[in-house]
Amino acid sequence: MKHSLPLRALSRLLQYPDQELMEHLTEVAESLYGMPKLSKKVQSGLVDFVKNLQTSDLFDSQENYVECFDRGRATSLHLFEHVHGDSRERGQAMVDLLQTYKEGGLQLSANELPDHLSIILEFASTLPLDQAKQFIGEMAHILNAVYSTLVSRNNQYAWLIAAAIEFSGEKFKIVDLKPEENSMDEEWAEPPAFSGCSTRGQSKPGEVQPLHFVKRTKELEGVQS
């Protein structure tokens, strides 16, 4: 199946970049460029993505990946998050997807979540072409939302998402985006101690702090003497 290696290459590039990837990037790129029926625009974008990855410091590439995919739901590669969030329905959807993988002969390790795009592409690489296109195409509306967000941030990972959409036979396009939720850092941020409330004797950081003067009494004089 001519589409198998290109899909696996795309899957690998959508995982966290590490030293192993960099050592085999040339071979991965060659497989990626063999993806059937990609437009010249997407092919050119993929070439630019690979060149940028080749010339970037690995630490910078890793930082870019985390900033891109792990700082909020809008670009999450866990596709069911876009549909179900953290609800109970996502859990059932992943159980169903795991069953699909099992029936297809794909076994995941304990630390892999089935709705990650890289896993979805890897599974699709084992299917006949028409089934692989249909399987990915069912998620094209989610992928277009991720693609649109990446384009708005001028991030070259958008070309990888575009390639997945185009492979499925769907068109990649800019769609209207919902206002982004708070980033993961903001969601987990600790609130200011005592809420910075001046009614408790302390203003918020950066504001004028009140001074409280206590009248000296004989009782206090006796304590200090």
Please write the string of helix (H) and strand (E) elements: HHHHHHHHHHHHH
Rg estimate, integer Å: 25 Å
Q: Number of DSSP strands? A: 0
The biggest beta sheet, please?
none
Gap from first CA to last CA: 93 Å
Structural class: mainly alpha
What's the shape?
A: globular
Q: What are the segments in which pLDDT stays under 50 over at least 5 consecutive residues?
A: 182-201
Give the arrangement of secondary structure elements.
Layout: H1 4-13, H2 19-23, H3 25-32, H4 40-55, H5 58-69, H6 80-84, H7 88-104, H8 117-124, H9 129-137, H10 140-152, H11 158-167, H12 184-187, H13 218-224
Helix pairs in contact: 1-3, 1-8, 4-11, 8-9, 10-11
How would you characterize the overall build of this protein?
The protein is mostly helical. Helix content is 55%, strand content 0%. Helix 1 crosses helix 3. It is globular, with a radius of gyration of 25 Å. The N and C termini lie far apart (93 Å).
Write a concise keyword list for the protein shown above.
mainly alpha; 13 helices; globular
Describe the structure in brief.
Helices cover about 55% and strands about 0% of the residues. The chain has helices at about 5-15, 20-25, 25-30, 40-55, 60-70, 80-85, 90-105, 115-125, 130-135, 140-150, 160-165, 185, 220-225.
